[in-house]
Amino acid sequence: MDVMLIDPAPVRGEAATGGRRRRGRRLGYPGLGIYTVAALTPPEATVIVVDESTQPIPNASHPDLVGISVQAPTAPHAYELAARMRSSGIPVVLGGIHVTLNPEEAAEHADAIVVGEAEATWPQVVRDAMNGGLEPRYDAPGPVALDSSPPPRRDLMPHGRHTPWAIQATKGCPFDCEFCSLAAVGHRRLRRRSVERVVEEIRTLPGDPILFVDDNLYADRAYSRQLFEALIPLRRSWVGEATWHLAFDEELLQLTRASGCAGLFVGFDSINQQHRIRKVPGGASPESTYVEAMRRIAGAGIGLVAAFVFGLDADDSSVFERSLEVIREGGAHMINLSVLVPYPGTPIFERFAREGRITEWDWGRYVSPHVCFEPKRMTAQELGEGTLWAQKEFFALPRILRTAARTTHELGWGRGLLALQLNLAQRRNWPHGTFGAGQA
Question: What pLDDT score was predicted for residue 20?
């Protein structure tokens, strides 16, 4: 049996404002999910993986089974692909975070859907397809132990000279941010791979940097400490994601750098703290706390990507300048600024729907900076334009050059050059649609 797995291209360009769809190489890395599904496929089946961001779907191919991974912004296109395949007599299985959160919708476009994680169900799906007896729905019994999941099929990945080698040590996040898909699917409980398995997998990867795709590498301090200590002898460079709380844990911050950490994506989320957002303890202002956190991370020799979300209920039109001032004072080397995107199935989508504030029902337009809801303290136009203004200010060419010079001074010429290259790439990319925060 020939199985084709498809990771649909993200929506780009004019699609963010209602125009045509564009596809192209994304700034990032091959996602692990679709390649893990490939590794789960029984050996008697031949697997082809198509990452549509980097390659087209072969016109001449006619597989026996197609599996498509679906996120909210790619859902309309995924459904188009499914219809095209099914019209040719090819059975289609849909899975992914959007399917798990919206199974009834997805079931209308597929021969079968996978709800939850694929480890517990995909091998059976393929065997049922081989026997001509696909069930309409396969539900995972619950979160799986990460050590039971096989390494992804990296031999099938498109990998360029500057593409990081992705790996995952943990899954889940203890916080319950209202806009996050992880909380919606019950992934607040942290799961961990054994440190020994993580280290052994890294040993097999041929180059740097290593990218940890974990939702929050600081979610379990004891585990993080064990992992970082085990990474030191490898002398490998890595990047990952953590919350700003790590900045105030001096011992672990220094250990993070000693383990080879070259950069961190840090979710600050909002300078306007509110219910279900990670609050600053002790009555300190978010602005002063975030500035200090950024300075501590940069002072430890770690590159910092500061991420903020605009459009939460406490935000008014002053949030853009105030957030940018925090970024300037803190000295972030890169930024990720996005409009709040209330992905269907998340708690915030359900609340906005009850309040009559959802204004967009085309999931393909659920990308930042398009505004899909009615903000509480500003207009939708102010939210979209304010986000673009903040991005334009940060990515102004003189500021990019100053950031590169400062990064060189703080972190060395290699990472200064990298900051210059990445910020120039983001300068070209920022007006186009990108996924918002919280879409796993």
Answer: 38
